[in-house]
Design goal:
Ribosomal Protein L22, Chain A; 172 residues; globular; transferase; 4PPT_N; alpha+beta; 5-stranded antiparallel sheet
């Protein structure tokens, strides 16, 4: 999937390797992310100079019981309320926040270089009509991200899955 995505950008005969943290290692001047759930796999690849932050995640919607069990590990109360106030069910809000934070992690890991928890980012804006949200990354991590601490995330809400995408341009 990743190789096919790179071929669209005329990057051929280069492999995506696997790093020590099981992260994809993209060819020089490229960046990207991959995700899969069940029988669905997705990849997003871009030229690093144009889009330094690329993250994608696809998840099945959490059921109410699972969402309630993990909600406190994933979400802050104000994040949930922001999404619920716009008509999402609690388990949908938890699923979307989880996926968005996964996309943010994938987008920023190449520069941060270490794992960080869900508490390190917070949803500060959500627009259900436009299917976008904005995540704020804590300052100690943002300093590794070219000074960027706000990341716009596109959300694709399907019947059985949620897909989130971060594709930040180099312009601030």
């Amino acid at each position: 999937m990743a190789s096919l995505s790179m071929s669209v950008l005329s990057v051929v005969e280069q492999k995506v390797l696997i790093g020590s943290h099981r992260e994809p290692l993209w060819p020089q001047d490229m960046t990207g992310a991959i995700s899969h759930t069940g029988a669905r796999a997705v990849a997003l690849v871009a030229e690093q100079a144009v889009h330094p932050f690329v993250g994608i995640d696809v998840e099945h919607w959490l059921d109410a019981v699972t969402a309630a069990e993990i909600e406190s590990q994933i979400c802050q109360g104000r994040e949930l309320m922001l999404l619920i106030e716009q008509g999402l069910k609690r388990e949908e809000a938890t699923s979307l926040i989880f996926s968005a934070k996964e996309s943010l992690f994938k987008a920023t890991f190449p520069l941060i270089g270490r794992y960080f928890g869900f508490e390190s980012a917070c949803v500060v804006e959500f627009d259900r009509t436009d299917q976008t949200l904005v995540l704020a990354l804590e300052p100690s991590l943002a300093r590794h991200c070219l000074g960027q601490n706000l990341f716009r995330c596109e959300c694709f809400l399907q019947a059985s899955t949620v897909t989130t995408v971060i594709l930040s341009s180099s312009r601030r």
